[in-house]
Amino acid sequence: MLIIGIAGGTGSGKTTVVNNILSQLSSEEVIVISQDNYYRDSAHLPFDQRVAINFDHPRSIDFELLTQHISALKNGKSIEQPIYSFVTHSRTNEIILTQPKKVIIVEGILVLTHPPLRELFDIKLFVYTDSDERLIRRIRRDIQERGRDLEEVLLRYQKTLKPMHEQFIEPSKNYADIIIPNDRKKNNVAIEVLSSVIQNKINFFENEK
């Protein structure tokens, strides 16, 4: 099994990188685990307290469960991923039953900040994008997909997103094996190289059977 960790700031283009990788591989061989499903459950808190949580700090992530799940998949066991709602700021009652596959991609802004999780990755990527571009993408996503208004998005950016990025996320690129820049031409080259490495690993697994 090949386990790949993909990190980068919010709005850096991690999802695009993942989708481009998936487009070159068989969906039967790859699964994607999103850090976003592993925010700690805050359903026990009043809604106004949930809204105030710093979701860009590593302590907001249930890394213990995420690491446990990746280890289970690595050992050939299925897992039940939680599903997190960014509207209610709590976990839903639904789960995603996930079976192990040849390649596991774990993506999220903080996945390279947690040593036990990081040690499970065979390949570590960091998607780099300048702060202005990331802010624009964050505004569009939070307004269109998460029902937030512009004032709330900008307030979060100033109070938590920017300082947390500088303190935790940006430094985590030092753990990356490959840094993918926000340049379409260079981005495509990096993805093609990575996809080739993944496919070679898959072929190796097949030949070992």
Order of helices and strands: EHEHHEEEHEHHEH
Task: Please give the domain count.
Answer: 1
Low-pLDDT windows of residues: none
| Main sheet strand line-up | 2-5-1-6-7
The second-level CATH architecture is 3-Layer(aba) Sandwich
Give the helix/strand class.
Answer: alpha/beta
Fold and architecture overview:
This protein is α/β, with parallel strands linked by helices. The protein has a single domain (about 1-209), classed as 3-Layer(aba) Sandwich (Rossmann fold). It is about 45% helix and about 20% strand. The protein is built from seven helices and seven strands. The chain has helices at about 15-25, 45-50, 65-75, 115-120, 130-145, 150-170, 185-209, and strands at about 1-10, 30-35, 80-85, 90-100, 105, 125-130, 180. The strands form two sheets. It has a five-stranded parallel beta sheet with strand order 2-5-1-6-7, covered by helices on one side. A two-stranded antiparallel ribbon has the order 3-4. A hairpin with a 4-residue loop joins β3 (about 80-85) and β4 (about 90-100). α1 crosses α7 (about 185-209) and α5 packs across α6. The radius of gyration is 17 Å and the shape is globular. The model has no long low-confidence stretch (mean pLDDT about 85).
Short structural summary:
With 209 residues, the protein is of the alpha/beta class. Helix content is 44%, strand content 21%. It is built from seven helices and seven strands, in the order βαβααβββαβααβα.
